[in-house]
Amino acid sequence: VPLKPGRSLMDWIRLTKSGKDLTGLQGRLIEVTEDELAKHNTKENCWICIRGLVYNVTPYMEYHPGGEDELMRAAGTDGTDLFDQVHRWVNYESMLKECLVGRMAFKPVAAPKGKCLIFILLSIVFNNSVQYLVNTGNFIQVQILMLQLKEYMSLPSRYSYDWFQTDDLITIVIYTKKKDMNAELVIADCQDKRLRAEIILDDHSYLVEVVLEHAVQDDFAVHIAEKVGKVEIILTKEDNIQWKVLGRPLESHNTFIERTDRGLFYRKCQLVSKTEVTHDTKLFCFMLPKGTHLQVPTGQHVYLKQIIAGTEVVKPYTPLLPFLPLDFKEPSCQEGAHIYFMIKIYSCGLFTQALDHLQIGDYISVSSPEGSFKKSQAQTVEDLFLLAAGTGFTPMVKLLNFALAEVSCLRTVKLIFFNKKEEDILWRNQLEQLALKDERFEVQFILSEPTKDWLGKRGKISSSLLSECVKRSRKDSKVLICICGPTPFTEQGVQYLKDLGYSQEEMHAFTA
Ligand code: FAD
Ligand code: NAP
Fold first, then answer.
1. Among 101, 137, 387, 497, which is least packed, fewest CB within 10 Å?
2. What is the pTM of this model?
3. Count of domains for the chain
4. 329 and 352 both lie in a single domain
């Protein structure tokens, strides 16, 4: 929502650093009961619990980018689920640390039968530690233990790892027994003896995470036996000594859980180049560390993290290719050691201004990928429509490349690209060249603020415009319409398409 002047994230950061008492408790931390939490449920007096910690968000109301009403949905309650649904990537601990009231008090109630069973199981598995924690009122740790038990119980035995060594190599083997394993599904980082290898298995992931017994060289190899789903990570020993153990397991080692239950993992990447795309948009190229194996899948985004005025700020961005390939006979070019972003610099943007001030050689933290788009949605498509507004073009780049290079039944791809002015159009030359080169591809530019000389289409997204521009090439052709841009653009687009008779399966909206 539009925020009032003086209510930007930067203004919020300034307020939190001003020394003002934002909780009304003069720095005291308290234990909050459910009844007490429920009393603080108005805009003027609003407390919210996230992961067992209670925040007084009253002073934050006017600064919330999603608006006061969104925040009020969690007023006086545990807002953890709501928070996770909307933006689990936002670093609330850092942003709201001055609003911390305290933690939830454990409520001693007679546990229902089911819970009793879990408590008994937990006690057995964790050597009665739960009982001790319950007795001492340490509710948060009980929750952590319950989560660990959930993970433990949900770990099917078919996921496992093994390791062996030669004089100079350590090979870690992960058996997923999943067909069609590929490099995008293996995210591995090895820095300062800490090895983290995450294998993506649909909505879950399997993790090997250890502090290695001895030092290894920075770079490593990943080999994948696609048909049997075997993944090998081959490390080179720093010294030719025999290892007795692989290393010390970290907290989430050898777990198989839902991806959304894992915290975001970041690695530091170095800015290699920054080139102008238009008057306000730049192409950033970052180099991944030597000890990282990461390929962002088509249609997915990552989070970039910077410390701005002492506060961690995180924003999502969609990696793309450095240019639009024109030849699809060769296998598509992979990011490899580099990751590219096309980013619009807003004159009053907190994050993009800081990005624009990065010097070549500076570092930024880049998370592992996220996003709901699956290549299988486009694998059998005949007509692909891409509706993009402004930088909403970014996910379309890899998608376009994937469709033209790998979808054998594809007949047409049409990009309908909405911008304000002619000078805002991203990669116009490349898109026009591609349209000339490949007869399956067509691009249409639509401007909302054109000059009188503009001969192309003008206007905003609307039902009539979509019914005119989005048409199946044959009566029953299999169609996919992907849409990305400012949230209202995307929401309106989806609604118009529904009204025009397209089904949910025939659309994909890119969102956070
Ligand atoms: P803020 O400080 O948050 O806002 C400053 C001003 O900038 C606002 O008042 C407004 O005028 C303008 N502004 C800020 N954000 C937006 C917005 N989202 N839409 C319209 N106007 C805005 N951006 C890219 O440039 N490239 C990408 O590849 C990209 N990928 C994204 C992927 C996802 C999944 C999502 C949800 C967003 C993506 N964005 C992308 C947008 C990006 O995350 C930031 O919102 C944007 O860079 C602005 O951040 P800021 O901190 O500079 O602006
Ligand atoms: P912009 O230049 O402000 O606008 C581009 C086009 O979109 C213009 O034609 C504009 O028309 C139209 N538009 C803007 N707001 C609209 C609205 N409310 N309703 C209908 N049409 C609207 O766009 P931008 O600054 O580049 O912003 C791009 C957006 O894409 C950002 O919000 C970014 O977060 C989002 N994005 C999302 C993802 C993702 O994966 N979810 C990826 C990349 C970018 P008007 O002149 O009429 O406004």
1. 137
2. 0.85
3. 5
4. yes
